[in-house]
Amino acid sequence: MKQSDVYEYLSVRLRMIFTKFPQTIRINEIRLRIGQPVIVETDVGEMFVSETGQPALIGQAYRVCERDIRETLEYISNY
After folding, report:
1. Residue 30 to residues 11, 38, 39, Cα–Cα distance (Å)
2. Residue 1, pLDDT score
3. What is the DSSP letter of 26?
């Protein structure tokens, strides 16, 4: 499965963010928690992701909202 194939299971907002994420960085894990910054585990370590889809410092990271989680779960479960 390609990395971009996983994006279809994310909320619309997160999908927009991750389609802008650098393709040269391989994502192994995406961590989503309400009110917390998006964290990705990559081959080079953990990093935060900004609303523009770029690696960021914690202060510039996109913070996940309840809607992101709800939508993502609905896509995963085909609800």
Report:
1. 13, 7, 6
2. 62
3. P
